[in-house]
Design a protein that fits this description.
5 helices; 178 residues; 38% helix; alpha+beta; two-stranded antiparallel ribbon
């Protein structure tokens, strides 16, 4: 589970919805707030998330209208604006807030990348290394829980998974609750 909830998470949700529209029917988001998607979408989703780790100067202080370099709105544009002034609407916004968002996006992108690499390890080597996780906030580094060990409660199933992780199928679901 990858969970994020802060004001600028809306930008990621919008971008991921655009990505998922290439892989599946995202009209379900309007009806049910969730859509199941294939594993093949994860790499593009991670790439998008990495692009938010350094925001274009063009919309850096737009706060709720952020878009990263991945977004089609930014591709091909000249981004040679030295430093943009904040609009009056967001005059309260300090440059550190944007820096904190960029750090947050980078951190989450690195966690998603680690998860993708773990799926690759399962696919190519039929081995897995438990990842640190937290039952409340998705992937974390605090080590309270291990993914998937802490989430497979039946010990017999866990042993089977550990012996042959490739025999199991992963399912992915994007839930947009905004």
């Amino acid at each position: 589970m990858f969970w994020d909830c802060h004001d600028t998470a809306r930008a990621i949700a919008d971008s991921w919805t655009k990505i998922l529209s290439k892989y599946t029917d995202v009209s379900l988001l309007a009806e049910e707030y969730e859509v199941v998607f294939p594993q093949s979408a994860l790499r593009e989703m991670a790439s998008c998330l990495f692009s938010y780790a350094v925001l274009p100067e063009r919309n850096r202080f737009e706060y709720l209208d952020l878009c990263g370099y991945w977004d089609i709105e930014q591709r091909g544009k000249q981004n040679n604006i030295p430093y943009k002034n904040k609009s009056e609407k967001f005059s309260w916004l300090e440059w550190e807030h944007i820096y904190d968002d960029e750090e947050h996006f980078l951190y989450k992108a690195m966690l998603l990348r680690s998860f993708i690499l773990e799926l690759d390890r399962i696919h190519y080597e039929n081995k897995y290394t438990p990842l640190s996780a937290d039952k409340g906030d998705g992937l974390r580094t605090d080590g309270k829980y291990l993914l998937p060990d802490s989430f497979i409660l039946n010990k017999i199933d866990l042993k089977k998974y550990q012996e042959n992780p490739k025999a199991y199928e992963w399912k992915f679901c994007f839930v947009d609750s905004y």
